[in-house]
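Lab notebook, page 48
Experiment: co-folding of the full assembly
Goal: obtain a model of how the components sit together before planning crosslinking
Operator: M.T.
Materials (sequences as entered):
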Amino acid sequence: MQPHTSTPIVQTKHSAHACLKPVGVAEVKLTGGLLEERYRTNLEASIPAGWQQLWESHTVPNFYVVSGRHPGEVKGPRYIDSDGYKWLEGASWALAHHGDDQLRQWVAEFVDVIAAAQEPDGYLNTQFMGERTSRRFTDLNHAHEIYCFGHLTQAAVAHHRVTGERNLLDVAIRYADLLYRLFGPEGRWGTCGHPEAEMALIELYRETGEKRYLELASRMIDARGRKPPVLDGSHYLLDHAPFREQREAVGHAVRALYLYAGATDLYMETGEPALMETLNALWHDVFMRKMYVTGGLGARYEGEAFGLAYELPNLRAYAETCAAIAGFMWNWRMLQVQPDARYADMMELALYNGILSGLSLEGTRYFYMNPLESRGGYERQAWFGCACCPPNIHRTLASLPGYLYSLEEGTVYVHFYASSELNTRLPNGQPVRLQVQTDYPWSGDISVRPSAGRYRLALRVPGWASGAEVRVNGHSADAEAVPGTYLVLERDWQEGDEVQVHLPMFVQVVRANPRVEEDRASGVLMRGPVVYCVEQVDVPDGNLMELYLPADTGGLEAQYDSSLLKGVVAITGSALLDTVAREEQPLYVPMHRYEPPRWREVQVRWVPYYAWANRGASAMKVWLPLALQP
Amino acid sequence: MQPHTSTPIVQTKHSAHACLKPVGVAEVKLTGGLLEERYRTNLEASIPAGWQQLWESHTVPNFYVVSGRHPGEVKGPRYIDSDGYKWLEGASWALAHHGDDQLRQWVAEFVDVIAAAQEPDGYLNTQFMGERTSRRFTDLNHAHEIYCFGHLTQAAVAHHRVTGERNLLDVAIRYADLLYRLFGPEGRWGTCGHPEAEMALIELYRETGEKRYLELASRMIDARGRKPPVLDGSHYLLDHAPFREQREAVGHAVRALYLYAGATDLYMETGEPALMETLNALWHDVFMRKMYVTGGLGARYEGEAFGLAYELPNLRAYAETCAAIAGFMWNWRMLQVQPDARYADMMELALYNGILSGLSLEGTRYFYMNPLESRGGYERQAWFGCACCPPNIHRTLASLPGYLYSLEEGTVYVHFYASSELNTRLPNGQPVRLQVQTDYPWSGDISVRPSAGRYRLALRVPGWASGAEVRVNGHSADAEAVPGTYLVLERDWQEGDEVQVHLPMFVQVVRANPRVEEDRASGVLMRGPVVYCVEQVDVPDGNLMELYLPADTGGLEAQYDSSLLKGVVAITGSALLDTVAREEQPLYVPMHRYEPPRWREVQVRWVPYYAWANRGASAMKVWLPLALQP
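Observation: model returned without errors.
Model output:
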């Protein structure tokens, strides 16, 4: 199978208000390092195990039942089809580099039965067929029908882009045409309680050139917050106000972030200032007030929702894996609108922490919630009754190559550093190859070897990278490497040129805005984009609950350990243990009877947050109180 | 109407394993001060308005419908009868001192229709009669039938004790006899998803001498945690383990605390060591690890449940009013078992803070949740769809007089200080009168004038009362006033004797166990048993979110202001405002870029927590960060 030539995740090529143009997933090959390892584990372990789970959870069998090919009963929950579609999207992206016969056969088999299950009018949802036909589109708030359509369509677009085959795309088109008849300008107002179809419809428009899909997406965004409400008027469903009047991130986090991502797709096509005004306000609210240091989003268990500003409990962080992924997807779209490195910073933070934490190292177990503290007993699971997170990881990791670079007229943007080969053409048709070698994020040294020709390289200097340096063939670059920007090198590149990026990797103590009550007078260790945590198993000599970060962290050592957690840089050194028996003390005491900590130095090991809970269900903490405090 | 002579809330007179014996609600008259004001407001405003709400919410009309006296439909929710019964319990206690014709008529009318609604076999629940008869006792997990029986019975016992009339008591007895047939030793195992009936059945046993009710209560406690489960086996319903194996407070807080209270009642009758072992462990877990500084209990919104140890978020504190009351009821029972002042300390903390906060100053609006921080917009409501809290306040305040004192052979215990007259007889028949005069909790000076005779006075020295002094007729008492104990004075009291208790009332900064992440490096102001908070309206010159407690709080002034919040001691003085524009700063920064606070002194007023949100829906904080921190 030949990969199709145009395999971007988001096709902004003709989007008038997207500065950046994509490279295809097939145009980037990961060649080593952490991301390549996670990518490969996804292909070799997660996606195959996922296929099994889709059978065992009755996700795939449902299609066999409704198509009449197998006898049996359809099983729920109502959003179950989407789990299959997300897996299929991931498997399709995987085929860009992974011509494995087995995987290709699974994909073909699944696509075939999906197509067979579709009704003649285009309808397709295993939960509302047969006896339940009359309930179609009767519960837009909670039935997830249009949401499932969205995931079908994203899978179809990926499948078409990678394989060049139209069979699944045609299924999506038929369904989209039905939705257009029902909810388009000639139909009734309608949208889904769970946004998702907005992104999908716009991508379908980009793939087919059919403007009606863009129009329908736009109408679905406009359907929210109407009076009388099209949905239920709730914050939970983002139906509390017209989208363009929304200024605060509220409600169900994944729903909200998918909506914001879809609206960004719409902006890329229309350039409507009111949309960007809303998106900028929401972005500020989410990433300046409501994000965990791990990139986790959605603080509350109740309603899987955003909390108020600065409401970020650690032990009870919800931080659903899907929400971190949704934030990643939204930032990617914002980044294509305008190459502001802050979007890439947030993506990288989420990727190396709150997203990768969702997957076990061996690749077959998942977190739904990603707390920043555990008292022990919390472990990843092989699948869930509500299984949105696992296949969201599948598709995210399988499409990772497509996120590393973007193009602009005459410019290659390097967003994320990973050993990789880029082989693409600039918008003007000029071929460009980049070879990147690095041990990032364990090392901050990156070698970029561009192919010959005149073009610009825009190299991201991460926001955390104070003291970054860029050299060309051993000589300092003219431009200054300002953290949180792209450093642009314009040259007539010669074969053999090497750009050396040096991002100083040192252990930093990071503090939270003091408005975050739960992180007050506390610190977290970071090294580059990687957030560290301590697991009880690495505090052999004390109780994690009594552990403090010393005032002087200069003695902490960071070292790569290939035998630990599939190879990580661990941080080791002294921390302080409060030896006062807090367990025995009252909850509240007057200041004059308050016993300040009595310190004992202990040796501790910090490991990357994403790798926690891979050595049993140990207690864990990200934030440690600072020993400076009174 | 003559009050019946024996009106204790919990009748421990013949309970072999209760050290303390009760005084009657009718034997104590509140004569002034804060508790008397709240007591009177409850009688004059809350209980009458509650009667109206019981009509408007269809609670009372349901009984008219099922009794066939009025046409119409029965309305839910399933636990709605209990709201009426709790009000009726409160109204009955109120009649002990409040011979108001109107109230007496309401009580009589309600009792009459309740009796008329009862089925011949004793069954009585408006939600499972008529067409819904077949659903009786088919959902012990969630139907709340036995729970409603419990509240009926508590109302019936109160009504009988205060009025001497048997009509409601006989209704309860008939229903109890039905339950005994169904769930007693000859019946099936059964109990209620919502504990409550355990306390009620034991009180019914105490009122009637009928041992079967004790037996049934015991069996209902034994029904939990069986295999296979009688309920659903969940932590939420306290069905995860046999009661005697439970060691941690988990699940729905009100359910848990009612169960613990009922088990304490059982212990008072049986003295079974295994029960007390469990109760001690649970008490330690609740009050040493899971209680808010306001006495609030049940941290989590999800499941209205206890969190893990030290999981005490302020902004998202659930702290249901009913849970604080349930904790108060449990501690009262533990205190009767054994006069350990720590139980009274916890009761007093809850009463003056997390319970009183549930009622508006004018007495007709209620909090269900009692958070320790608000960003504004949170206000009390006149009633709720789930209206458990309002009538729980009615019955608690109406029975308050009965909580002030207990008796032991030859001893009068003074648990709570309030201007009041006690007129009782010791267990040996000796008449005793006490006259107490005080402005407590605004003042710590208390005058106790005992009637003549030889007996002991056991005066509670609250745990917070460092430097307490007790004098008799102006001379130092021989015994030392140790905080957290009862000081016992044994004398041959003469007419005219005066005991002067001096509890130094000063503003204290209280700190939390450092394991409580949300309160780390923070402090709360307390004065005596009263917890203070700051409302935004009292920080005219800054944002409450940026307010810090200064290192030196010596300059804070506490002064009674009769015009403020119906008369409170307010605290005024300087606090510090961080003037760094935190709103504009990133959420997370490396230590070397962390901007420490820049202080500006501002004048602030603190008010008692219980009185917050009585001047509009202002933002509010209990805990303030200490300006000492780095």
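Interpretation: The radius of gyration of chain B is 25 Å.
Next step: discuss with group before ordering constructs.
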